[in-house]
Specification:
The protein is α+β, with helices and mostly antiparallel strands and about 350 residues long. It is built from 5 helices and 11 strands, in the order H-E-E-E-E-H-E-E-H-H-E-E-E-E-E-H.
Length: about 350
Amino acid sequence: MPAAHHRSGLMRRKPTLACAALLSLAACGGEGDRQVASEICVREAPAAPGQGTAGMIFVPGGAMLMGAKPLRAEEGPPHRVEVAAFFIDATDVTNAQFAAFVAATGYVTRAERGDTPASLVFVAPDGDEPVRDIADWWRIVPGADWRHPEGPGSSIDGRDHLPVVQVAYEDALAYARWLGRELPSEAEWEYAARGGIDGAAYAWGDGDPTSGTSRANTWQGPFPYADTGTDGYRMRPSPVGCYPPNGYGLYDMAGNVWQWTTDVYVPGAFDDEELAPQSASFDPQAPSVPRRVIKGGSFLCADNYCFRYRPAARTGADPGDGASHIGFRTVVRPPQSAARTAENTNGEGHP
């Protein structure tokens, strides 16, 4: 999705209650969709957050060609960066894991605070309804939060293994620090997403993402009207780990839900020599709002509109906004000696 759809001004518009925004999970798809409620795609995802580096994958340090010959203006030009070794969650943080954090700490997310708690929810327009801009498929829905991702008529009951969404940047950071972890930088995230395949178009290499076995939960069909669901899910997140992992053993580094990183967002952040200063964010579409980079694309990424389920792709999001397609994962940056030990023991993500 382009950066514009996260415009903070959208959150300041008068909230619009649409019946479609209050649909339950079952109403979002069709009869051919997988039954998300009871599905567990990858059993390695723990039901509760692990201590230390449990549930994480060790990613050895190295160099990569970050960015790409830009398909979007903000993606390039490509440039070499060095990344130190780190651990990263094998999957997105799930509803069950985030619920354990909330139960232990009493934490209240940004979407649940304030006089009129609300958050952003995707609502597909009718097929014969002309669309003009992003406000035609995004709604500010009172009562939408991580427990009710699509609004008051929805629930995470039976969705323990889906990625948690409707979490603002500070919510994700609070979860990470509760575990003694951090959120990944943009460079760390992209390095991990590439899975050891430097310079490839996708997390799995250069192969056509639409040929053969589905590789990610994305949108098939003309966005925003119709998702055919040929990848198994229509207009909804999938449980974590439903698609093959990349070369490092990481799931859902393409599609499903966007993921927060710590970098501030500057469109076209790279010049021919070096990274632009990252101490301030400027997005001409939201000049007064410092934004954070999100990576990976989501189930709403369609080739005809977004095409951002690639490691080099990037966009910015208002850190105070949650949305029904943004989640996160965490990292641990070990001391250099510990990183060498992990690498010498095959880097398995265990305490």
